[in-house]
TrEMBL record:
Record-linked PANTHER family: GLUTATHIONYL-HYDROQUINONE REDUCTASE (PTHR32419), OS02G0814800 PROTEIN (PTHR32419:SF31)
Lineage: Eukaryota, Viridiplantae, Streptophyta, Embryophyta, Tracheophyta
Entry's Gene Ontology cellular component terms: cytoplasm
Highest taxon of the lineage: Eukaryota
Matching InterPro entries: Glutathione-S-Trfase_C-like (IPR010987), Glutathione-S-Trfase_C_sf (IPR036282), Glutathione_S-Trfase (IPR040079), Glutathione_S-Trfase_N (IPR004045), GST_Omega-like_C (IPR047047), GST_Omega/GSH (IPR016639), Thioredoxin-like_sf (IPR036249)
Name of protein: GST C-terminal domain-containing protein
Provenance organism: Escallonia herrerae
Cleaved signal peptide residues: none
Length: 412
């Protein structure tokens, strides 16, 4: 692709811009002033005394300004090589360039039950859709007292860290300190386990504070445990998000939704070749079309009953327009363009206690500020108006799709 002078001017260091290229003063209506009585513009500021090393080397080699074509080709090749290096470590891919998500290290299929020998503690991060699943099921099941939570915040290097105090913003959960172990980073918490740990320190992570052990760091196992394994101390034990008669259908939906939508958006965003992206984006949008059609005739994925499959789909949908549509190049459509899917998302958002788990500001901050390889300029776009709480609270009228009156009952 050739670069037009317009592109080149974007890269020019303003310190070295001569007066001829500076914008001329404009009148109130935007047209350049031509008055001869206009005082001359002030001279450009002098170059800094101690320029940064890159600027210093550049000046030494090429004088005051690097030839634009050279600047672009140099930056392009070094950035491209560095980008592939970073991506191969942060988002491993197969030989075709398709993102392959690493598997979780700690799986717990066995229900812990209510053993008095366990003291569960949940570690989450607000941007993370997998962690968000656990926050929602914890709230719906009324497990806030049984499973206290510590909310990590994404550090500048992409790892999870804890703040000294919680700064309350809005009626949402906010990042704060590690109230179980007093650690500064999630990595330190993982390392506290007997035998230590050297793998990825991911959220969500369920910790047993009595045994000082990682119970599980796979979101689906954690939500299954929250749904049925802790009913003796749950505030809402009667809510079953995975009734035995629905298990097969829930599994069938998960097998479609996980690879094509939940992980599908990541496969778009982390693709390292055009082919890998094309495959991921086609699978994602063909599945969204299928879901939109299905949800035109059913209130939830499995009919009238909210299940774990809906929670898993919801946490991706709520991030779609503010994040994935832009940052992960899921651009074919916005979620708001899907009438049924968007109504379905609002239906779940409006279930009592769910909106309170959705901190969209923290979600946007997390993705745009932390996924440096995808957003090196570090600029967070403004929140799309369709993601404001007022819009998400718009009536959805999806009760009419239920054969029985079946609003999810949530107890405080
Ligand atoms: N399969 C895991 C995925 C968890 C995951 O990838 N979490 C990300 C945040 S969205 C993380 O903590 N990444 C940190 C890292 O890889 O070091 C689950 O569903 O729980």
């Amino acid at each position: 692709m050739s670069c037009t002078p317009l592109h080149i001017s974007t890269f020019r260091n303003p310190i070295h811009t001569n007066r001829a290229t500076q914008p001329r003063p404009t009148s109130r209506h935007g047209s350049p002033r031509t008055s001869l009585t206009q005082p001359p513009p002030p001279p450009p500021p002098p170059p800094p005394q101690n320029p940064d090393p890159i600027t210093a080397i550049t000046r030494l080699l090429w004088g005051k300004s690097l030839p634009p074509q050279l600047l672009i080709s140099t930056v392009r090749s070094t950035w491209s090589a560095t980008w592939h290096l970073m991506m191969s470590q942060l988002a491993p891919s197969d030989p075709s360039g398709s993102y392959t998500r690493p598997t979780s290290q700690f799986r717990s299929k066995s229900s812990l039950g209510q053993s008095p020998d366990t003291a569960l503690h949940l570690y989450v991060g607000l941007p993370c859709p997998w962690a968000h699943r656990t926050l929602i099921v914890r709230s719906l099941k009324g497990l806030e007292d049984t499973v206290p939570v510590s909310i990590a915040s994404p550090g500048i290097d992409g790892s999870w860290e804890f703040l000294d105090t919680t700064v309350r913003v809005g009626d949402y959960p906010n990042p704060g300190p590690d109230t179980a172990n007093g650690c500064k980073t999630l990595r330190e918490v993982y390392k506290l386990r007997r035998g230590g740990y050297d793998g990825r320190s991911t959220v969500p992570m369920l910790w047993d504070a009595k045994r000082k052990e990682v119970v599980c760091n796979e979101s689906y196992d954690i939500i299954e445990l929250f749904n049925s394994g802790l009913n003796r101390s749950a505030g809402n034990p009667d809510l079953d998000l995975s009734p035995p008669s629905f298990k097969t259908r829930i599994d069938e939906w998960n097998q479609i939704i996980y690879p094509r939508v939940n992980n599908g958006v990541y496969r778009c965003g982390f693709a390292q070749s055009q082919e890998a992206y094309d495959i991921a984006v086609n699978e994602l949008f063909s599945t969204l079309e299928l879901l939109d059609e299905h949800l035109g005739g059913a209130r939830y994925l499995c009919g009238d009953t909210l299940t774990l499959a809906d929670i898993c789909l919801f946490t991706t949908l709520i991030r779609f327009d503010p994040v994935y549509n832009v940052l992960f190049k899921c651009t074919r459509k916005k979620l708001i363009e899907y009438q049924n899917l968007h109504g379905y998302m609002r239906d779940i958002y409006q279930i009592p206690k769910v909106a309170a788990t959705c901190n969209l500001g923290a979600i946007m901050d997390g993705y745009y500020k932390i996924l440096f390889p995808l957003n090196p300029g570090n600029i967070r776009p403004s929140m799309p108006s369709c993601c404001e709480h007022e819009v998400l609270s718009d009536p959805h009228n999806r009760e009419t799709l239920s054969l029985v009156e079946n609003n999810v009952q949530v107890y405080a």
